[in-house]
């Protein structure tokens, strides 16, 4: 995984800089995201790692599956990755591209796990609080976990805020052990 990240970084940076110059961040984000999802598929990975397919055949498979989702520049990007035997790094390239895009746009995605459904008002308040704390626009994605006793767990990049009942009980238990 770390190897793919190291390999992916210059490609993600180059794609980001090109997308910025063309004022096409959203389009590039969609193209790279789609191509990454294709590569993440188990059957496609099997084809891309098959010793029976040439580099050209692997490239053609990718271009055929992505047909209609990539513009000419996106197709050239896939061809470049194929020529350098880097198609399998596409998921990491997409991840790094999205990170660069979010840094530029001053946005962040936050995943919220809740024990109960959150109302629109609660989600709005949570979004505003997180935006204030992080100094960025926050896009939240809420999932419900019926196994949680109560509370919320918020994950945004490398930050985790555990406000669940189970998390609070674990902190109390640690405090009492001292």
Describe the structure.
Helix 7 links the parallel strand 1 and strand 2. The chain has 178 residues and is an alpha+beta fold. The protein has a 4-stranded mixed beta sheet with strand order 2-1-3-4. The longest helix has 20 residues. The two termini are 38 Å apart. The chain has 2 domains: 101 residues, N-terminal domain of the delta subunit of the F1F0-ATP synthase (Peroxidase, domain 1, Orthogonal Bundle); 71 residues, 2-Layer Sandwich (hypothetical protein PF0899 fold). The chain contains 8 helices and 4 strands; from the N terminus they run H-H-H-H-H-H-E-H-E-E-E-H. Helix 2 packs antiparallel against helix 6 and helix 4 runs antiparallel to helix 5.
Query: How many β-strand runs?
Result: 4
| Quaternary organisation | single chain
CATH third-tier fold name of the largest domain: Peroxidase, domain 1
Q: What is the CATH architecture term of the largest domain?
A: Orthogonal Bundle
Major sheet strand order: 2-1-3-4
Q: What is the mean predicted local confidence, pLDDT?
A: 89
CATH superfamily heading of the largest domain = N-terminal domain of the delta subunit of the F1F0-ATP synthase
Based on Cα principal axes, name the global outline. elongated
**Major beta sheet, specifics?**
4 strands, mixed
Helix/strand class: alpha+beta
String of helices and strands: HHHHHHEHEEEH
Tally of helical segments: 8
**Main CATH class of the largest domain:** Mainly Alpha
Question: Termini, distance in Å?
Answer: 38 Å
Radius of gyration: 20 Å
Give the DSSP E fraction (strand runs of 2 or more residues): 5-15%
Helical residues, percent: 55-70%
Unreliable sequence segments:
none
